[in-house]
Amino acid sequence: MHVFLGSGLRRAAAIVAALLAVSCSSTPTAPSPDLRGGVVATFAVGSERFNVFVTNPQAIAQLVALQQGTGLANIPNARIHRGTGAGNHNAPYSWHLDPSDIEITALAIELCDGAPTYVDANVDEYVDTVKRYCPWGARLVGLADYR
Question: Whole-model pTM?
Answer without folding.
Answer: 0.78
